Amino acid sequence: MWVLLRGGYPLRILLPLRGEWMGRRGLPRSLVPGPPRRRYRKEALPALEVPVLPVTATEIRQYLRAHGIPFQDGHSCLRAPSPFVKALQLKDQTGATASFSLFIDKTTGRFLCMSSLAEGSWEDFQASVEGQGDGAREGVLLGEAPEAEDSEEIRRIWDRAIPLWELPEPEEAQLARVMFGLTKVTDDTLKRYSVRYLRPARSLVFPWFSPGGMGLRGLKLLSAEGQGNEVHYKETTIPRPGIYCNLFGLPLISRRDVEVVLTSRELDSLALNQSTGLPTLALPRGTACLPPALLPYLEQFRRIVLWLGDDLRSWEAAKLFARKMNPKRCSLVRPGDQQPRPLEALNRGLNLSRILRTALPAWHKSIVSFRQLREEVLGELSNVEQAAGIRWNRFPDLNRLLKGHRKGELTVFTGPTGSGKTTFISEYALDLCTQGVNTLWGSFEISNVRLARVMLTQFAVGRLEEQLDRYDEWADRFEDLPLYFMTFHGQQSIRTVIDTMQHAVYVYDICHVVIDNLQFMMGHEQLSTDRIAAQDYIVGAFRKFATDNSCHVTLVIHPRKEDDDKELQTASIFGSAKASQEADNVLILQDRKLVTGPGKRYLQVSKNRFDGDVGVFPLEFNKSSLTFSIPPKSKARLKKVKDDNGLVTKKPSSGRKGAVPQNSETCLGQAHHSNQPNPSKPSR
Ligand SMILES: Nc1ncnc2c1ncn2[C@@H]1O[C@H](COP(=O)(O)OP(=O)(O)OP(=O)(O)O)[C@@H](O)[C@H]1O
């Protein structure tokens, strides 16, 4: 379902449909009510195509001053008296500050009234100040309460769940403790955090209480499954993850607390609080994102320590989240052998308070010494694989050349007109998105509906036209992906596009933006010199955006007009050399019609700043699934492949420029898209 984001940003978000999720949650049948339901929010369908310029903190301040509204400047929000709380109620509050219960996000202008839980966009706020509508009375602005069917299920599960120590069989309780690593977590801690156990689902249950103690708003279930020597955990939330905004542990935070430790899992918070006594909160979606809606709850803290996990991804997420919360008040616990995640640290008998004391300030001045960098460098050296980024599941050869998809890089992608650039880049981005890379698409040429159709077909690896009965199944799974689309179509100004991307990074923690294609930001300049200057400026803007936001940008650029029988080279990218100079990676979709016949394509990596490996590998287009895979007998054909300098590559080797990845044959034996999610075996 397409839902237009309130607040005027030209973004559409894909929200999971609510039909099949019961089954997908894998809860026991007895807890699954009735037949699957499907609901459409009709009012959400019309899309706003005219972008509205985002608001700035200065504009918000000016507006408040102009309307005589007092405010206090906070870390990520401005605080003001709430127009949604009656004057009488204010008197009951504990003092002047408490009456400032309205939090306005400095970046987006979105507001939350802590007293009434009214929330809305900056436009909604202005409308209510200017008396154009009483949003709260209309029910438009009230924070999303659980839907009736959710409430029912939440209540039913919560009532059936029991404290671990009340399990009738001591062996069962012991097994659960071992499975969840809770052998050192006391009953007292579990009780303080109201953690229960749902026997039929063999899951721990973490409650989401409404702020102000107004009842149960949701639940997170955590199940554990032993696979060999490893235990795999699966999380299920009610309501669905997109709107599950529980800062677990919030009811235990006192107004006077000025320090907090943020973790990415509820169990880590239990361990941390038990062994250090410090206030701690667990983020609802772990390292995947920090929704700005949670920021008002963190305003009271002068110091926030982020201890998110033991891998490089957690470290990257911690740095990203610190930016949002104001890095000056944030410190980060660096992952390391002696600094595992909190629960593991407790189980290994490590001193958690001491680990917390090693947390590094997130704030970097413009000039740093190697002393400040040495830990970062060590982190990269000791986690070489993770530092290389996220590996593609569908393109093993791309991994061999590029090593992975890294944050903060700019990839330029080109290929002849109609050669399949959009189709390829769609699958390349989808692959990453299915692995949790929050992705934003800017498709200026083809409509979002068509793009989504291509992506869905690639996701399902087959023609959905012929299996419409399975459409819902795939669509439901597709909707759970962290995938967002800009609603731009046709020519756009680069400023508007960058502003929208900035907004998306803040709100959805976007790590990958795909722009298809750059020509749509170049305006209508007729003179070629103007066009080249415009392109250089745009490429520079995307480069800066990628670096400043630690966000990967993949930019599709048309090639210059060249002879049909010539292969493209880095220099064939339209415009000056700026694009290839600024890019970290240059990918070329080679359409070698003359050599290989129609339909065959090769992907050439002609620049790779990360480690220099460049080369080509074959792609075979599958028309029914719109996917690309390694064609058989690639070795023979590869002999004909020329490198960027026009030299013939005689045989596959692992050398650098122009080389074909050595073990491209090994890919041939691989099952096609073996890593594709299987809808009959759901997992999150
Ligand atoms: N390797 C291929 N062989 C045959 N058809 C293909 C191949 N790759 C893509 N196609 C089909 O060709 C059409 C054009 O593909 P696509 O829009 O991805 O090309 P493009 O390079 O992005 O086009 P443009 O230059 O207009 O931006 C689509 O219908 C697509 O399904």
Automatic annotation (TrEMBL):
PROSITE patterns per the UniProt record, alphabetical: SF4_HELICASE (PS51199)
SUPFAM superfamilies: P-loop containing nucleoside triphosphate hydrolases
Biased composition annotated in UniProt, kind: Polar residues: 661-684
Stretches assigned to the SF4 helicase domain: 384-635
Membrane topology of this protein: Peripheral membrane protein
Keywords: ATP-binding, DNA replication, Helicase, Hydrolase, Isomerase, Lipid-binding, Membrane, Mitochondrion, Mitochondrion inner membrane, Mitochondrion nucleoid, Nucleotide-binding, Transit peptide
Family matches, as Pfam families: AAA_25
Keyword Nucleotide-binding: yes
Coiled coil spans: none
The reaction(s) this protein catalyses: ATP + H2O = ADP + phosphate + H(+)
GO cellular component: mitochondrial chromosome; mitochondrial inner membrane
Keyword Ligase: no
Main localization category: mitochondrion
GO MF, one example: identical protein binding
EC number: 5.6.2.3
GO biological process entries: mitochondrial DNA replication; mitochondrial transcription; protein hexamerization
Start and end residues of each stretch annotated as Disordered: 637-684
Subcellular location: Mitochondrion inner membrane; Mitochondrion matrix, Mitochondrion nucleoid
PANTHER family on file: T7-LIKE MITOCHONDRIAL DNA HELICASE (PTHR12873), TWINKLE MTDNA HELICASE (PTHR12873:SF0)
Its job: Mitochondrial helicase involved in mtDNA replication and repair. Might have a role in mtDNA repair. Has DNA strand separation activity needed to form a processive replication fork for leading strand synthesis which is catalyzed by the formation of a replisome complex with POLG and mtSDB. Preferentially unwinds DNA substrates with pre-existing 5'-and 3'- single-stranded tails but is also active on a 5'- flap substrate. Can dissociate the invading strand of immobile or mobile D-loop DNA structures irrespective of the single strand polarity of the third strand.
Name the UniProt record assigns to this protein: Twinkle mtDNA helicase
Source organism: Mustela putorius furo (European domestic ferret)
Encoding gene (name): TWNK
